[in-house]
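CO-FOLDING WORKSHEET

Operator: S.A.
Ligand of interest: flavin mononucleotide
Run index: 491
Mode: holo prediction, single chain
Checklist:
[x] sequence pasted
[x] SMILES validated
[ ] output reviewed
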Amino acid sequence: MSTNHPTIIQGGMGIAVSNWRLASAVSGLGQLGVVSGTALDQVFARRLQDGDPGGHMRRGVDQFPFPEMAKRIWDTWFIPGGKADTQPYKRPTPATKDGPRDVRELCIVANFVEVFLAREGHDNPVGINYLEKIQLPLLPSMYGAMLAGVAYVLIGAGIPLKIPGVLDALALHEPAAYPLPVTGSQEGDDTMMTFVPAEYMEGAHPPLRRPDFLAIIASNTLALTMVKRANGKVNGFIVEGPTAGGHNAPPRGKPVFNDDGEPVYGERDVVDLVKLRELDVPFWLAGGYGRPDKVREALDNGAAGVQVGTAFAFCNESGLTREYKNEVLKVVAAGSARVVTDPVASPTNFPFKVVRLQGSVTEPDVYAGRPRICDLGYLREAYRTAVGAIGYRCAAEPVTVYKSKGGKTENTVGRKCLCNALMANIGLPQLRNKYVEKGLITSGDDLSELAPYLPAEGWIYSASDVIDKLMSELSDLGEALTSMCETPVLA
Ligand SMILES: Cc1cc2nc3c(=O)[nH]c(=O)nc-3n(C[C@H](O)[C@H](O)[C@H](O)COP(=O)(O)O)c2cc1C
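OUTPUT RECEIVED:
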């Protein structure tokens, strides 16, 4: 088993909670910082419409290897001095199976810039995280991240069997294909997405680093399937349990719910680490491992380390607004933090963890006041239309629209527009006449474990506090900390 891997992986947290600042801080300290690749086109377009405060996006765009594309993107989205506060954001069109080209270009540039900025100022590896369920922007996004020298690609929320082969192809600037699941598709339908780098490149470029691929799994079966059936090398696993923040894998077997309507997980949902070790692939444990004793326990169980999300999500460098951090940390400090696993909030059908905050859209009566609308579309499902074309629908869109696309009414109950809510979490909310989109904070079940990070007054702590704490019980601390720096980083 390789020793050149990080002990701590700061988990990918969308949308832009694990942004370039957080990943840069973590990687700069010799552990693995991971930027979220989810909806980066949207995030980037809004940062430019806000006038690019600090000039960071410009700095990244200046290093982008295809200058004409960079100029097109900049000219389309940048507003000098920022848009007026009363103006809504302009939106990129949601991606579809084959494009459109301008959105693919935006994905390439946005993913490049996020990774470039996270890598700036140190020589350590940086990773990027995607959700397999969000297939439409995947190919151009990964290409953009690879142009910036991303060292790890981490993908969960789905079965990413075809990712390794895509990474192999993109590293050589060769065409890549990825299957789009289309509900109701029939034999002979073309459901393959393709991306041809040569159609976007300006001039010849040397091969890119092929990033290590870490598949996020929640069962031994999936781990084995990935090893046996993936179309290329799987370099490691993140074993994520049901207490982790964000989306969770649904429980195995017949669904059972507790009195609060949360899915109940059982023995079958526990990954057998002895069996996993037999696959001889490095693995990291995630979900409730944000404590020094849990890091020790993971290493003792043969893991290469741990992936931690929640402890990093509320630190200074994360993308959540200060207001949301304070709101959450206030209840943590008061000992009244409450996280629920909502089985229906996410249009993906995966359970989604939500922090309950009074007056927030986690409360049903507050959410009911939000006009139902789907205009970002990352979580849309592709379906076969009556004429055999590909249509797109989201269970959180207006019910009549969803039904007119063949969707079932029962699928719409309790669904929330995560796309707009998660953009609001990071201070980029859409404005609709007088309605401003509100946030919906996700976190792991172990939110209350954040209390030891909090100083007696105020709720301010940094990524380095988290890392120091996590590493504090390792007797082989020196070895673990230097292990990452031995990894050669290729551009
Ligand atoms: C705010 C937040 C957002 C997250 N978003 C994602 C995501 O976009 N993709 C992903 O694979 N995991 C996501 N996760 C899961 C983390 O990457 C990590 O695996 C998990 O948080 C580890 O468990 P912990 O929260 O108990 O530390 C998210 C977690 C949090 C707290």
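REVIEW:
Confidence is low (pLDDT under 50) at residues 479-491.
The chain has one domain: 8-321+450-482.
[x] output reviewed
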